[in-house]
Amino acid sequence: MKENVVRLSKLMSDRGLCSRREADAYIAAGQVIVNGEVVSKLGTKVSLDVEIAFKDQAQAKQEGKITIILNKPVGYVSTQPEKGYIAAIELIRPENQFSDGNLILQPGHRKNLNVAGRLDIDSKGLLVFSQDGTVVRKIIGPDSGMEKEYIVGVEGLITRQVIQKLCYGLTLDGKMLKRAVVEALGPNLLRFILQEGKKRQIRRMCEIVNLKVIKLKRVRVGKVLLGNLPEGQWRFLGAHEHF
């Protein structure tokens, strides 16, 4: 039986080490070690169980990529703003940094900083920015199943049937939504845990079951919590935190 093999760059991407383009650059530069030996030939195929490591230079470059957590207030847009609106990235300034250690915002930190998922202008809470394409893909890539948790205030009658419909059975844009976790926290308060992120998804889901969203806050992405981060402030992703 033929052993399963795959391109080294693809395996590195699948394991979340870096993007395939970055992997090819590291390989060509002789910065990738497979089972203890340097691999520098592009297109090299390896078995799925190999051990992969970076040389010090490549490791340092990877570790130099920063990821930032922002508590976005209502009134800011997540991505490129329309006229009259302010992009959330404008809040990532030294005066808005939440004290979380010795790392200080540097001039180059906002370069190539991409937003990983959106929150609409009327929503607030956890918004992730990263220079690391691997982090962004883990959160919003086409194969991502990463959980996002929201606390949602609504107007309308919350019944067992409404909860059941919100959990499974609704369609948006002609496609069935993935199964969600939805539970009532109070007469007008819901917790949503989703594994997808269609545009204004929670608001549109609620409209279908005759609920009106009056407030929406994202409190978790994957294992990373918003925690006690004040609204309008940001912090670096901690060394102990991983998506």
Characterise the protein shown here.
The two termini are 36 Å apart. Strands 6, 9, 10, 11, 14, 15, 16, 17 and 18 form a 9-stranded mixed β-sheet that branches. The chain has 6 helices and 18 strands. The protein is α+β, with helices and mostly antiparallel strands and 243 residues long. The longest helix has 9 residues, at 20-28. The chain has helices at 8-14, 20-28, 56-63, 133-140, 160-167, 201-208, and strands at 5-7, 32-34, 37-39, 45-47, 52-54, 67-72, 76-77, 86-87, 114-115, 124-130, 148-155, 171-172, 175-176, 181-186, 189-194, 212-221, 224-225, 234-236.
Stretches where pLDDT is under 50 for at least 5 consecutive residues are: none
Number of helices: 6
Distance, first to last CA:
36 Å
> Roughly what fraction of the amino acids lie in strands?
25-35%
**Rg, please?**
21 Å
Tally of structural domains: 3
